[in-house]
Amino acid sequence: MPEDWRRALAVVAHPDDLEYGCSAAIAAWTDAGREVAYVLATRGEAGIDTLAPAECGPLREREQRASAAVVGVCEVEFLGHRDGVVEYGTALRRDIAAAIRRHRPELVVTINHRDTWGGTAWNTPDHVAVGRATLDAAADAGNRWIFPDLAEQGLQPWDGVRWVAVAGSPVPTHAVDATPGLERAVRSLLEHRTYITALTDEDPETYCREFLTGYARTVGARFGGRPAVSFELFGR
């Protein structure tokens, strides 16, 4: 992965999207003194069957902020789109372009925007919409004639995005060594305890550790044998 950057912005659909495999890389980046901020399209309010959205949304927002802090991320924003029914389109592109203009990153991170996870599991519409919109918004953010109202609000064009890195891509091109950040990645995912408890009957810590270490080993087999986090990197 490129290393000549100072600021990154991670844009995903839901709380826990980054923690399922990407946060070990984020921990390594913040350790190196780089700034990383999170933007989430939704609060994940439709993600737990036993909790009504009005109760679930604030709870998952709190868990996400705690999760981000574990890997050195202090800024976490929520765009307020409805969980489960995020629509790709100009409204979503505008919100993400505005976030890019606010944070002015050189690297933008999102997750798999394709129809499937490796051709074996169907991806969710929210992931597809947010991933695609993020790729588009990286260019929108630098064009003063797209969403000109943003400049009127003080958000001047930012054409400084040099790469968009897609985590969880079925066709990864780059990887980050997961070893230094793996333990914090486990603790970061564990902060989503309410969601995990609803998801599995396993002990939450055992579940988080086995999932993330297994994922990092599988990825590492393609990238030199060390546990890793993989990305498909798009340059601009």
UniProtKB/TrEMBL annotation:
The keyword Membrane does not apply. It comes from the Bacteria. Gene3D superfamilies: LmbE-like (3.40.50.10320). Keywords: Zinc. InterPro entries: GlcNAc_PI_deacetylase-related, LmbE-like_dom_sf. Pfam families: PIG-L (PF02585). PANTHER family: LMBE FAMILY PROTEIN, N-ACETYLGLUCOSAMINYL-PHOSPHATIDYLINOSITOL DE-N-ACETYLASE-RELATED. This is PIG-L family deacetylase. It comes from Streptomyces roseiscleroticus. The lineage of its organism: Bacteria, Bacillati, Actinomycetota, Actinomycetes, Kitasatosporales.
